[in-house]
Design brief:
This protein is mainly beta. 12% of the residues lie in helices and 30% in strands. It is built from 2 helices and 21 strands. Strands 2-5-8-11-14-17-20-21 form an 8-stranded mixed sheet. It has a 7-stranded parallel sheet with strand order 1-4-7-10-13-16-19, covered by helices on one side. A 6-stranded parallel sheet has the order 3-6-9-12-15-18, with no helix packed on it. The chain is globular, with a radius of gyration of 17 Å. Keywords: Acyltransferase, Repeat, Transferase.
């Protein structure tokens, strides 16, 4: 009973807050607890039936913190495709982060398209970030499963149907239907594809 109440109240409140800030929400987007959001949310799109888990009891493994969705710059953009589920994930964008349909992001996954700080050592702590110089788009294609605690970093691309093992760090391109794991993530196997019906 408690969970049903949390789902209902969280979803009503989160939808109202995000719509007030001009985020684009598809049909039946659901929230378990409230996410943390910042930036120009006109650049945030959540597709139909996206689910964000923001409380520990909302998923078997639990989450350490609510989901965080941050638009960091005037060019940042986050697009999350239909039927994707995220558990306590952090997504930050200064360029663009695109997550496809039917993806699963395990507990506490982080996705970011920027280094956050400039490279020159002098004044790095206080300098305004040069977002174009330190950011590159991230693309996660349809049907990808990313295991708990993984990090998907700037410029990464994860091909359709792939699996990323827990605790991995993705810095490059993972081909479609691959199993990748490690730091940095490397392909260690392939995902079986369902036979096509003729």
């Amino acid at each position: 009973m408690f969970r049903k109440i949390v789902w209902k109240v969280s979803t009503i409140c989160a939808r109202a807050i995000l719509r007030q800030r001009n985020a684009r929400l598809g049909r039946d987007v659901r929230f378990y607890g409230l996410p943390i959001t910042s930036g120009d949310l006109r650049r945030l799109t959540l597709g139909d039936r996206v689910v964000l888990i923001n409380r520990p009891e909302g998923t078997a493994l639990g989450v350490r913190a609510p989901s965080i969705l941050r638009i960091l710059s005037d060019t940042g953009r986050i697009e999350i495709g239909a039927d994707t589920g995220i558990s306590g994930g952090t997504i930050c964008s200064a360029a663009s982060v695109t997550i496809g349909e039917r993806c699963l992001l395990g507990a506490d996954v982080m996705v970011f398209d920027t280094d956050f700080h400039n490279r020159p050592a002098e004044g790095r702590r206080y300098a305004r970030p040069d977002w174009p110089a330190i950011s590159r788009p991230v693309v996660i294609e349809d049907d990808v499963f990313i295991g708990t605690g993984s990090k998907v970093m700037k410029g990464a691309r994860i091909g359709r149907g792939s699996i990323v093992g827990a605790g991995s760090v993705v810095t490059g391109t993972i081909p479609p239907f691959s199993i990748a794991s490690g730091v940095p993530a490397r392909v260690i196997g392939t995902v079986e594809q369902a036979p096509t019906v003729q």
